[in-house]
Request: fold
Amino acid sequence: MGKQMTEMLKGTLEGIVLAILADEPAYGYEITARLRDQGFTDIAEGTVYALLVRVERNGLVEVERVPSEKGPPRKVYTLNPKGQEYLDEFWQTWDFLTEKLNKLHHGRNAS
Amino acid sequence: MGKQMTEMLKGTLEGIVLAILADEPAYGYEITARLRDQGFTDIAEGTVYALLVRVERNGLVEVERVPSEKGPPRKVYTLNPKGQEYLDEFWQTWDFLTEKLNKLHHGRNAS
DNA sequence: GGTCACTATTCAGTGGTACTATGTACTAGT
DNA sequence: ACTAGTACATAGTACCACTGAATAGTGACC
Reply:
């Protein structure tokens, strides 16, 4: 993956995953697959699992073990209120950044 | 500063600074001041200088020492062709991310 | 003439995040 | 048995922004 993408994902990947969970609960393997479908082809499984461990440790999600027909049991993650609040903050921060960067990108300014 | 902002700046702050330099050459202290003017009120001076050392080491900028009337000599940074190319890649990566995140934010999808 | 304020740069140490690479474990098809 | 697909876990690495402090020059004020 591009080095720039790697760095830019720091801070945003977490928001992306939480946004996916806000849409509907999901488990790690599924999240990884969905990310790939959506164009993030180079995100490693290990990255997602480590991230999920982190958001669980931070109390942003609820976890439920669900048996699978084909493989080990799944850990299904659900966004909880604290996670939703955290996600709202994420979008605020993201909006702030996009506003500033759009100005820099297009608004060849006359300071 | 918000922890989310701190993490989100990783990868983007470098692009922001390079974009500022693309507009016109500048020195560290000036860049810090300009960032503050543009709303990044909490970016520490040390952060900017460390970033400038890095982009210089990576050969993205040219450096010229210019005496100052009031203070130590300034190190004026100018974006070079390699830096411009790197900045173009940055905008591509940024556009990719914004597209995906906009879909996640608004487009409550029908996968 | 000593302190304060502003300008200007540098650097050591810290914490957080994504990546690499690998390992574990269950199921099904051959 | 062997392979492939599903599913989760983790140690080690690299990179980046932040904290906090140090260094150094100039001008102004008392």
